[in-house]
Structures are given as C-alpha cells and as structure tokens.
Design goal:
Layout: E1 10-12, E2 18-20, H1 25-47, E3 49-50, E4 52-62, E5 66-67, E6 70-71, E7 73-76, E8 86-95, E9 102-103, H2 104-111, E10 117-120, H3 131-156, E11 162-170, E12 185-189, E13 192-193, H4 197-207, E14 212-218, E15 221-227, E16 230-233, E17 236-238, E18 241-248, E19 252-255, H5 266-277, E20 287-290, E21 293-294, E22 300-301, H6 306-315, E23 320-324, H7 328-331, E24 340-344, H8 347-358
Parallel strand pairs: 8-20, 20-23, 23-24
Antiparallel strand pairs: 1-2, 3-9, 4-8, 4-10, 5-6, 7-19, 11-12, 11-18, 12-13, 12-14, 14-15, 16-17, 21-22
Length: about 375
C-alpha cells in the first residue's frame, strides 16, 4: 500500500551530507495566528466607539390617532369632534452620545447614506452629560411643549385661559441674582402686568437700563423688588433669568406618547387639539406631517433633524410637510421626491396651510422655503 504521508525531502547540509527538512506546519501555524490577530485587530479598530452622533429618521405618530391603544390627544370637559386624516408628528432617533455608541464602521456606513446626518457629540451634548440627564431634559421639554401647545391652540380658537410667568433658573452674576429665586411667579414689571416672556422683554427693553420695579409672588406672598437690568450691548438689557409658564386651562387635555421626548412636537400637538375642538375635518382626510416647537403665543420655532423628519414623513405616506421657517436653510435641496414642503412661522399660518391644502390648493402656491 502506498503511504498517505508525503516522503521527507532531503536538502543539502553544510557538510555535504543529507539533512531532513524542517516541518512546514510550524511556519504555517505562525502565519495563521498572525492572520487571525490581524483580523481581530481590524475588528477591534472598526468596533472602537467614535465621538459622533448619527441622526436617523424615527417613528411617526398621528396626533389624531392612538398609540398603544390610547388616544394620543384626549380632551375632557369640552365637546370634541371626530377627525379623519392625519396630522403626523415626526421624530429623529439619535445613535451615539450618552444613550448609545457609534463605531467607526457604523460611521462610515452612515456617511454613505444621504438620509442620515453626522455631527460631533459635543455639538449636542456638553461633556459629562449622562443618559439620565438626557432623559430628564427630554421629559421636561416634552411636558413644556404639551402645555404650550394647549395654550397656543386655545389662543388660536379665542378660548380664554390663565397664564403666568415663572422663573425657571437664574443666570450666575445676573441682575436678578440674590433678588429673585427659581419658582417665583412674575406678576408685574414697571407696574404693568407681565404674563408672557415677550411682555417682560418688551418692558425691560423700554427701561433702557434704568431700575425696574418687579412684582412677584413667592410662597403665596406678593412682593416687589427693584432690579437694574444689565447692559448686554447693542441696545439689549437683561434681568438675567429664564422662564417657564404656569397655565390654568378651562378643561383637561392629556397626551399619551411616553416614547417621545423633546420640544419639537409642539406645533403638531397644537394642530391636533384645534382639529379635535372644531367641527369638521381640518385635513379633509389627507395625511399631513410636520415639526416645530411652539410658544404659548403661537410662534413656531426651529428644531433639529429636519432632513430626517422629512424622510420619515415621506416614508410614512405624508404628502405635505410643515417646516419651521427657521429650518428653511436645511430644507432647501433635501426635500424627498413626492413630498411638498410649506414654510410656517406661527400656528395660524400652519393651520391656514393645512386648510388650504385640504381644500385642493396647490402647495406650490403656499409659503415656500427658499435659499
């Protein structure tokens, strides 16, 4: 029988005699181990987290519909009307930062997808920001946006409600430090009623830096303190505090959307409330999406991730998208095929755009984003 073991090959020795060849499997083993190590090293390199955040189109929710079996907007104590169609709020999922990580391979893949956006972590999150902090901030911003949405909707419908300005925080070294406290309710500035941030800013600007009598309530007790605004340059004067609002509504509006945080759903919440409180169908059965923060006076503010939100809206079936005027620079050149985009700066302009589109108006004849 022939042997399956290959014969040993002799090679010349220094002394001219035959010598057995060294087994070759050791050299192959070394090469194999080296190759595996290289692959492992490459895998580690690709898997190393990078300090970037990727914005990805997130879920879309119809404010006129339900989530997990509950109405996203429910109203008690006031007559409501059934609404067909959809007023979709759009979201963005952030991959990276405190909540997750992005590796080098994922970053390269994301860079090849025009529907995604990449930015440094520091551009969104201050150094040291924790997952818990992000969650708390998102929850607080969502609550504020919901309250503001109710206020803006009621204002648009001329339904009276109570509104007060409360101090959220004091800026270190500001004119108000040591005189006012977070939680104080601002009642008057210079003897005039001050129930909105815009009113406070207007009265402070009119002072031209002169001392102001600020009336406030703390612990149920009304007080007055004199504060001299600080000159911020270019004709701007500041008292140095941030505000939040306390509302008293004539009926209850509840929201069921625990999976979403942040302030950007405000405008679409307000439109949903208006549709539910008015007879008829605001959308005439059409699917309309949008995004934007909302102030109690109806001002619509810019948001992040507008490109991803337009992509999400189109992918979910929307034909019209309401974009904040402050985001127009990012909108131009990034509108998905088949999606019409209308520029809005207030709740009333958004409402008129929805009504006009629902009645058959060409969206190209409505306010547009331009360079």
């Amino acid at each position: 029988m022939s042997s399956s073991v290959p014969p040993t090959v002799g090679i010349p020795a220094d002394d001219g005699g035959p010598r057995l060849a060294r087994p070759r499997h050791r050299r192959g083993l070394v090469a194999a181990v080296s190759g595996v190590a290289t692959l492992l090293l490459a895998g580690i390199v690709w898997a190393v987290p990078v300090p970037y955040v990727v914005e990805i189109p997130g879920p879309v929710y119809n404010t006129l519909g339900t989530d997990n079996g509950k109405d996203i907007i429910s109203i008690k104590g006031r007559e409501t009307y059934a609404a067909k169609g959809a007023l979709d709020l759009t979201t963005v999922y952030l991959e990276g930062g405190p909540n997750s990580t992005v590796n080098l391979l994922g970053l390269i893949r994301s860079a090849l997808d025009p529907s995604l956006s990449i930015m440094p972590v520091d551009a969104l999150y201050p150094k040291g920001t924790s997952k818990q902090t992000v969650s708390q901030e998102n929850t607080a911003e969502m609550q504020s946006s919901q309250d503001n949405a109710v206020a803006a909707a009621l204002k648009s419908l001329s339904i009276p409600f109570g509104q007060q300005v409360k101090i959220a925080s004091l800026i270190s070294g500001s004119a108000s430090e040591g005189k006012l406290q977070p939680g104080d309710t601002i009642l008057t500035v210079a003897g005039q009623k001050a129930d909105s941030l815009a009113t406070v800013q207007k009265l402070v600007a009119a002072s031209q830096g002169k001392p102001l009598a600020v009336g406030f309530q703390r612990g149920g007790v009304d007080q007055t303190v004199e504060i001299t605004p600080k000159d911020a340059g270019q004709g701007r004067y500041l008292l140095g505090f941030t505000v939040t609002y306390a509302f008293t509504f004539p009926f209850t509006v509840d929201f069921a959307l625990d999976a979403v945080g942040g302030p950007s759903a405000g405008m679409m919440f307000a439109l949903g409330i208006i549709d539910k409180l008015t007879p008829g169908d605001l959308t005439q059965g059409r699917q309309i999406a949008g995004t934007g923060t909302i102030e109690p006076d109806g001002t619509v503010g810019a948001i992040g991730g507008i490109v991803q939100k337009m992509e999400g809206a189109k992918g979910h079936g929307a034909t019209l998208f309401l974009a904040p005027a402050g985001n127009c620079g990012e909108v131009v050149g990034h509108i998905p095929d088949g999606l019409a985009v209308v520029r809005v700066d207030t709740l009333d302009t958004a409402r008129r755009a929805v009504e006009a589109y629902a009645q058959g108006t060409d969206p190209g004849k409505l306010p547009q984003c331009t360079k």
